[in-house]
């Protein structure tokens, strides 16, 4: 267990490093490139990232299937077919939309190479989780922002490329560089299987089913955040929307990046292995450690927001954004449920209950909508949105806690 804890702590440190560098890069780019150009670029990248969502959903299913079958050849070939289908769809629908509807002044091939390079990186990074190459996951996360900065400097200052062209060169070349690094480093331990047709047996059909369910489940979690944005737009002022979009949501996403995403990258594969090995004492030890860690992190988050949150927001942002302090105060008390729910979802998916994980995510959307509209009956304040979001996270925690206990009890009976 000490090994997985070490990887987990390193991931948090590296994620913090990456967040600082990426945020610094955005500040730097804002001084060099026009606001409209920068906005169009990041919107295009968001659309590409969202279109590749299904590849992220494959990750946990690949982990579970490989632990059970060790048949990486079939798993990766199925994954390759989906990548090819996704790239064809992106080429025919996503790229024309970005090029013509967004009026992006850039050659078609820049967009083609962007989707190709991002797909290649997603393909290789999913393999790292499947093979449980935790050290390589951390090293690639460390290198990712460094490659972006290096390639932008090369494109802008050495090649004298300006504007949106430099940004897309940065994205394509950093993704390709990172993919090449992963492929070389991985090749020493895991060689690429040959590309060939796959006959779907029972295990591979289950893998495919779990992958699609996991994709919808992951998308549901993202949808809840954007539902909060929709409620802010629908019922409240642009000023309150700005408090949420510019301050509250980014801080929440940074906290999730630092302390929640590593759960799925590291603990889920480890839990899957421990369940497969029937090492239940180690599972209980891992759970105790993560629960203690979650309460410590969440308590520090609450203390920081209460003591220095208002001053921090006032220092970093104009005075018009001070309303975000109230949003963050509410969310900080409920952040512990986000962390604990991440562990429970990981355990549920590691046991193979992907449909259950999806239902829990969907219940969160239901909790959010109900809590928001009930709260609005008593108050017209925009905090209703944040409170509804907080109740949704608590509701998902309670649901996943019940399911986790039931699954664990079932597994223990099989011993």
Supply the key terms:
single chain; 415 residues; mainly alpha; 14 helices; 0% strand; globular
Question: How is this structure best described in words?
Answer:
- This protein is 87% helix and 0% strand.
- It is built from 14 helices and no strands.
- It has helices at 2-32, 35-51, 53-69, 72-101, 108-130, 134-158, 163-187, 202-235, 238-259, 261-276, 280-316, 324-350, 354-378, 383-413.
- Helix 3 runs parallel beside helix 10 (261-276) and helix 10 (261-276) packs parallel to helix 12.
- The protein is globular and about 60 Å long.
Summarize the structure.
The chain is built from 14 helices and no strands. With 415 residues, the protein is mainly alpha-helical. Helix 1 (2-32) runs antiparallel to helix 9 (238-259), helix 3 (53-69) runs antiparallel to helix 4 (72-101) and helix 3 (53-69) packs parallel to helix 5.
CA-based shape: globular
Sketch the topology as an H/E string, one letter per element.
HHHHHHHHHHHHHH
How is the main sheet built? Answer: none
Query: Helix segment count?
Result: 14
């Amino acid at each position: 267990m000490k090994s997985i804890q070490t990887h987990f702590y390193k991931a948090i440190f590296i994620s913090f490093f990456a967040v600082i560098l990426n945020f610094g890069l955005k500040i730097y780019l804002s001084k060099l490139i026009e606001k409209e150009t920068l906005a169009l670029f990041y919107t295009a990248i968001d659309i590409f990232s969202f279109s590749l969502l299904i590849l992220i959903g494959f990750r946990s299913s690949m982990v579970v299937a490989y632990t059970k079958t060790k048949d990486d050849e079939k798993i990766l070939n199925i994954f390759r077919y989906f990548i090819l289908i996704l790239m064809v769809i992106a080429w025919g629908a996503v790229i024309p939309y970005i090029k013509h509807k967004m009026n992006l002044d850039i050659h078609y091939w820049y967009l083609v190479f962007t989707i190709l390079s991002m797909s290649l990186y997603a393909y290789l990074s999913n393999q790292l989780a499947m093979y449980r190459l935790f050290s390589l996951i951390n090293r690639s996360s460390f290198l990712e922002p460094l490659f972006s900065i290096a390639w932008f400097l090369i494109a802008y200052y050495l090649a004298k490329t300006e504007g949106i062209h430099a940004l897309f060169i940065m994205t394509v070349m950093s993704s390709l560089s990172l993919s090449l690094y992963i492929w070389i480093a991985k090749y020493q331990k895991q060689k690429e299987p040959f590309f060939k047709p796959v006959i779907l047996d029972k295990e591979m059909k289950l893998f495919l089913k779990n992958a699609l369910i996991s994709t919808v489940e992951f998308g549901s979690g993202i949808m809840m955040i954007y539902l909060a944005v929709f409620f802010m737009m629908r019922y409240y002022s642009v000023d309150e929307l700005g408090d949420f979009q510019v301050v509250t949501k980014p801080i929440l996403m940074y906290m999730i990046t630092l302390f929640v995403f590593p759960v799925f990258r590291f603990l889920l594969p480890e839990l899957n292995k421990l369940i497969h090995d029937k090492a239940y004492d180690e599972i209980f030890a891992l759970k105790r450690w993560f629960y203690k860690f979650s309460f410590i992190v969440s308590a520090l988050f609450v203390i920081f927001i209460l003591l220095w949150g208002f001053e921090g927001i006032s220092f970093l942002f104009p005075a018009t954004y001070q309303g975000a302090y109230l949003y963050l105060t509410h969310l900080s008390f409920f952040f512990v449920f986000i962390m604990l729910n991440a562990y429970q979802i990981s355990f549920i998916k590691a046991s193979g209950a992907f449909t259950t994980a999806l239902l829990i995510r969907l219940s969160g959307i239901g909790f959010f909508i109900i809590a928001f509209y009930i709260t609005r009956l008593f108050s017209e304040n925009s905090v209703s949105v944040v409170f509804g979001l907080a109740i949704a996270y608590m509701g998902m925690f309670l649901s996943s806690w019940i399911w986790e206990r039931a699954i664990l009890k079932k597994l223990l009976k099989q011993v």
